[in-house]
Design brief:
With 319 residues, the protein is mainly α. The chain is built from 16 helices and two strands. It has a two-stranded antiparallel ribbon. Strand 1 and strand 2 form a beta hairpin.
Length: 319
Amino acid sequence: MAGAAGLTGLSWREDVAAAFGDWRRFLESERRVSANTLAGYSRDVATFLGFLAGHLGRPPALADLAGIGVADFRAWLARRAGEGAGAPTRARALAAVRGFFRWLDRTGRLHNAAVGTITSPRQARPLPRPLAEADALALPATAEETATAPWIGRRDRALFTLLYGCGLRIGEALALDRRDLPAGDLLRVVGKGSKERVVPVLPEVRRAVEDYVAACPFALPADGPLFVGARGGRLDGRVARRAMEQVRHLMGLPDTATPHALRHSFATHLLADGGDLRAIQDLLGHASLSTTQRYTEVEADRLMELYDKAHPRARSREP
């Protein structure tokens, strides 16, 4: 196949080159992947085939691809890691190779049982990026001041106060109906997997929501949405994110200051003030404690930053 050898610098067996070319045409014409995606997938698979040529001592044929085992795939991933490819790069390359083998299987060219058993390289989950406490407290009022209409300002203030005060996901808050408005100190929330949880509602949160309801020009029936848009329908998450973006620019906050960052801030600030990790897990609706434990890493990083800035022994380490 013309051009295939150029991807690896090695000669190709005719059957593999033909299959590779047909697979590329399938991606381009039927899957309609972008030019960049096609180039990336092609490069990843060609690199894998180039590795096999050295690993086997000859350019692989389709029969060789059918016979390679788990150890061969792992050796390739280890080689990529040794070359400096990070976990996201290796995970993407493995996804491309899996896709190539699945296509070979569907088209009757070969079947390889091992490729489906290889686990993707584990990628470290990014740590939550909470707002500073002062910024989280000031943000709802700033949102009210920058809105295009007074009632929209009260709506945005109520929404952001609710996210920070109760630790809700943006989708959970926007799914609330008028009848869910807390009359007392507790709010029932339906989270991921339709799991319900009960969270306490601070007086300031309740007042902010009540002020918005009183100012809203639309009727808010009990079975209708609590938060509505400019035309009276349920507020769209994109509108809420745009409002947050405007506030973020005005306050000079980083791009990580999203509606979800208010939920991160809720958990991080509770933990910093001595909150129990198990209780925070329940408030957030996390199924696994390990998810909540990420906030302990955030707090540890913050404490080390304070130590390095303030402790005399830490300052004495500076050159």
